[in-house]
């Protein structure tokens, strides 16, 4: 292969790569997905076989479209590898929870609820409270805590706790 053919091929490859990068950058806002992270997890024993988990997290909607929440799940993987799904507390009940258990500290954020809309380009802090039918020691020794948020069009965002 001659040097000129190789040179032209490299230039053409660079031009195509630049075109693809520009196209990807222009369409970046058309992908409806949330970015975010779990900021804080609080655990409270309700009785010897039932534990409350309060999860504070931050969400960012980098898309050009509103993200409307359809469903939220809090899923815990125990040290044994068992998967447990939490039973959510309603927003009204979380106020009573914080009053009943001062050791949890203050309520930092409103609850993320079904039908809530997260506007394009917005950064929001939210929380969820869910109970699990296990002892607090099992929750504390967890392998993973996963917050799964489903959008009305069935798009799913998952936030995983980093321990």
Give your account of this protein's structure.
The chain is built from three helices and nine strands, in the order αβββββαββαββ. It starts with a helix and ends with a strand. It has two domains: 1-30; 32-160, Immunoglobulin-like (Sandwich), CATH 2.60.40. The radius of gyration is 22 Å and the shape is elongated. The mean pLDDT is 87. With 163 residues, it is an alpha+beta fold. The protein has helices at 3-26, 91-100, 136-140, and strands at 35-47, 50-60, 67-77, 83-85, 87-88, 117-118, 123-132, 144-151, 156-160. Strands 3, 4, 6, 8 and 9 form a five-stranded antiparallel beta sheet that branches. Strands 1-2-7-5 form a four-stranded antiparallel beta sheet. A hairpin with a 5-residue loop joins strand 3 (67-77) and strand 4 (83-85).
The total tally of domains equals: 2
- Which segments are poorly predicted (pLDDT under 50) over 5 or more consecutive residues? none
CATH class of the largest domain: Mainly Beta
Q: What structural class should be given to the helix and strand makeup? A: alpha+beta
Beta content: 35-45%
Number of helices: 3
Measured as a percent range, the helix fraction is: 10-25%
Distance between the termini: 54 Å
Write the CATH fold name of the largest domain.
Immunoglobulin-like
- What is the overall silhouette? elongated
Give helix and strand order, one letter per element, not per position.
HEEEEEHEEHEE
Total strand count, please? 9
Q: Report the major sheet.
A: 5 strands, antiparallel
């Amino acid at each position: 292969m001659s040097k000129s053919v190789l040179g032209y091929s490299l230039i053409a490859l660079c031009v195509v790569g630049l075109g693809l990068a520009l196209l990807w950058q222009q369409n970046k806002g058309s992908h409806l997905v949330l970015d975010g992270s779990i900021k804080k997890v609080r655990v409270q024993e309700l009785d010897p076989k039932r534990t409350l988990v309060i999860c504070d997290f931050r969400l960012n909607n980098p898309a050009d479209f509103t993200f409307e929440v359809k469903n939220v799940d809090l899923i815990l993987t125990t040290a044994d590898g068992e998967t447990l799904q939490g039973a959510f507390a309603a927003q009204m009940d979380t106020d009573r929870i914080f009053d009943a258990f001062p050791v949890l500290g203050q309520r930092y954020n409103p609850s993320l609820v079904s039908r809530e809309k997260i506007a394009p380009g917005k950064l929001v802090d939210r929380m969820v409270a869910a109970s699990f039918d296990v002892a607090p020691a099992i929750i504390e020794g967890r392998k993973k805590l996963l917050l799964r948020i489903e959008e009305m069009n069935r798009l799913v965002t998952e936030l995983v706790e980093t321990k």
